[in-house]
């Protein structure tokens, strides 16, 4: 089949890398793609008809791209605009969780600043304040004091922080614990779990500093034991898919639950309606099954018929970032050493890269995702950093502790 990937980040490069290995693929196109994807697929701003389209990011899904493509008779991996509200509106996601009895933090919804501020008396600190709409990762604030919470509400609800996305807010209890990314693929009725992953969102080692889109991930079955994975499927993923189908807006595509493992059980922090980035890099690196076959089955209501196999070795992805990221990243720095990194056995996924005068340069905050595996998590980490050591660009920075939190399980 002819497959189109919409997007141009590290997630989409990892999808292209895995799809390029599929026996089902006749041609691979990406729009817009990136210089890494261009080594595997035809990259174009104006894609034509595809047999199957995989939509990477959330913004086009919330805007209804999957509906448009389906209306043209195309097969799509990605939810309708109605189902994408699970990510597009934090309030909608909470409604679904309430209806389906999915465990989540206690919360209140507000569209009026005075009542939002007043309701703070019902919360302890830290408290979580979330913009209702899409906010490119900037819509969640953990306020440590009432004063900080009031300032955040003011900035969010008057549109200063994240524009109109923040006019309505969710205020919720802070859940302490360990965060896990749990992703599953649904065909609207059936849903199959992917291996668990953990992201590292803060920019600096030790989870310090401002949040980013994700500084690195690892994929290792030990993150969640089989019983907990089963509980997540039964208490979170299946009820969410069932509830969306019951409402007449079935969810097809990748459902990503950001979970907190707390001392009193699992809590859903958020739903995303797409694969994670950089979760996809380690998932595709570890996936043994044919992705083309799996995606094709998912568009035919048969996702559960393709057995999901994972390579036994854990995978680790270290994200290399441009100068000044996560503030406004600098662009145009020349990147060197990718071939040398790949010679170590690592796979280097491109994200914010561009070609300029025949040079590969930085063109976004998260530039590359260096991904490797090993027979133990420790060796996977060492192998990923051996690849990282070969790459240079001015201003490059990255975390040196990706995967370290998983070592306690070995
Ligand atoms: N890495 C987190 C996300 O993709 O939302």
Structural commentary:
There is one protein chain. The strands form 6 sheets. A 5-stranded parallel sheet has the order 3-2-1-4-5, with helices on both faces. It folds into 4 domains: 2-77, Rossmann fold (3-Layer(aba) Sandwich); 107-173, Dna Ligase, domain 1, CATH 3.30.1490.20; 176-305, ATP-grasp fold, B domain (D-amino Acid Aminotransferase, Chain A, domain 1, 2-Layer Sandwich); 315-409, Phosphoribosylglycinamide synthetase, C-terminal domain (Glycinamide Ribonucleotide Synthetase, Chain A, domain 4), CATH 3.90.600.10. It contains 12 helices and 22 strands. The mean pLDDT is 97. The longest helix has 21 residues, at 226-246. The N and C termini lie far apart (41 Å). With 410 residues, it is of the alpha+beta class. Glycine is lined by residues 199, 213-214, 272, 276-277, 279.
CATH-derived architecture of the largest domain: 2-Layer Sandwich
According to CATH, what is the class of the largest domain?
Alpha Beta
Low-confidence stretches: none
Strand order of the largest sheet: 3-2-1-4-5
CATH topology of the largest domain: D-amino Acid Aminotransferase, Chain A, domain 1
Structural class from helices and strands? alpha+beta
User: What is the C-alpha radius of gyration, as a whole number of Å?
Assistant: 21 Å
**Whole-number count of domains:** 4
Total DSSP E strands: 22
User: How far do the termini sit from each other?
Assistant: 41 Å
Superfamily (CATH H level) name of the largest domain = ATP-grasp fold, B domain
User: Helix content range of the residues, please?
Assistant: 25-40%
| Molecules bound to protein | glycine
Number of helices: 12
């Amino acid at each position: 089949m002819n497959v189109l990937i919409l997007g141009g980040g590290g997630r989409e490069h990892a999808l292209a890398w895995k799809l390029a290995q599929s026996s089902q693929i006749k041609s691979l196109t990406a729009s817009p793609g990136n210089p890494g994807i261009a080594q595997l697929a035809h990259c174009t701003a104006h894609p034509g008809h595809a047999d199957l389209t995989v939509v990477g990011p959330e913004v086009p899904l919330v805007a209804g791209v999957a509906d448009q493509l389906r209306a043209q008779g195309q097969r799509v991996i990605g939810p309708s605009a109605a189902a994408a509200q699970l990510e597009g509106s934090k309030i909608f996601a909470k409604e679904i969780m309430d209806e389906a009895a999915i465990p989540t933090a206690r919360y209140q919804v507000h569209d009026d600043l005075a009542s939002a501020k007043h309701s703070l008396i019902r919360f302890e600190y830290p408290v979580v304040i979330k913009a209702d709409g899409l906010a490119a990762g900037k819509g969640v604030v953990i306020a440590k004091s009432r004063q900080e919470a009031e300032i955040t509400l003011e900035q969010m609800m008057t549109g200063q922080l994240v524009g109109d996305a923040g006019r309505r807010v969710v205020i919720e209890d802070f859940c302490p614990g360990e965060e896990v990314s749990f992703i599953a693929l649904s065909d609207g009725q059936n849903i199959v779990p992917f291996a668990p992953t953990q992201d590292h969102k803060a920019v600096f080692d030790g989870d310090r500093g401002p949040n980013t889109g994700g500084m690195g991930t690892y994929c290792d079955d030990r993150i969640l034991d089989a019983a907990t994975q089963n509980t997540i499927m039964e208490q979170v993923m299946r009820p969410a898919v069932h509830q969306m189908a019951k409402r007449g807006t079935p969810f097809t595509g990748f459902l990503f639950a950001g979970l907190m493992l707390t001392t009193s059980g699992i809590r859903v922090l958020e739903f995303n309606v797409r694969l994670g980035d950089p979760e996809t890099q380690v998932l595709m690196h570890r996936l043994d099954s044919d992705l083309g076959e799996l995606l094709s089955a998912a568009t035919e209501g048969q996702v559960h018929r393709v057995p999901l196999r994972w390579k036994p070795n854990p995978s680790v992805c270290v994200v290399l970032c441009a100068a000044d990221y996560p503030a406004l990243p600098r662009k145009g720095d020349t990147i060197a050493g990718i071939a040398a990194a790949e010679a170590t056995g690592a796979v280097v996924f491109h994200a914010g890269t561009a070609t300029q005068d025949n040079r590969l340069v930085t063109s976004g905050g998260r530039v590359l995702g260096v991904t490797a595996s090993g027979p133990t998590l420790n060796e996977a980490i060492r192998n990923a950093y051996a690849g990282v050591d070969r790459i240079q660009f001015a201003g490059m920075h990255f975390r040196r502790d990706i995967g370290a939190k998983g070592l306690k399980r070995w």
